[in-house]
Design brief:
It contains eleven helices and ten strands. The chain is an alpha/beta fold. The chain has one domain. Helix 1 packs across helix 3. It is globular.
Length: 257
Amino acid sequence: MLILLPPSEGKTAPASGAPVDLAVLSHPALEAHRRRVGDALAKVSGQRNAMEALGVGASLHQEVERNRTVWDNPAAASSTVYTGVLYDAAGMADWDAATLDKARESVRIVSALWGAVSPADRIPAYRLSMGTSLGRLGGLATYWKKHLPAELDALADGGLVIDCRSASYVAAYRPAESPWVAVSVQRELNGKRAVVSHMAKHTRGLLAAHLVRDDARPETAADLADAAAGMIGDALVDVTLTAKAKGPDELTLVIAG
């Protein structure tokens, strides 16, 4: 089982601690590629057009400024750096050492800067999205697409890949040798169904925590559907598995609004 998560846009900057050590992050074969992206990010973040280049507004000026010293800034476990709805729902900041050890083998956060990291990997806060075109590196999804498959296909090792990412991060890595299921969440309210971003992120976070903490090891999409249904309980209105000719199969969970 391999759970793929998106990073959060918002991040909590560690107040203290040693800087990131690229040599000890998961997937050390990505070290040189991470260095190239980080160097390019620091350079772009110091330019006059930095906000435009990174696609962010003036309110994020301090975060962009912090990118300039990304190699020197304090680092902490990514489980505490990534924040937001999905990570709060997973309670990831409070995962103990045993849970983080499990996550080292079964969870990867696909990142525009790091390629992929585990919740236990120590990283600094940064501001960079996968949809960014970064200087001479070009589009980051295209860049990482060259380097992630060998690493993540080996980690999945033919087991079920459970995908909770958004589209821009899917573009950076598509499993080639493992069964692949994307988790979709809808809300049903007054007989109408709709995708609600907050609910979708929240449910995916709960599911990721459930699978890791409870040692659930679904081998098929049907196993995953059963695990999700058991977690959600009476609030679950419908669960549907849809096989796709191309791309991931889709597990759709419909939850009472």
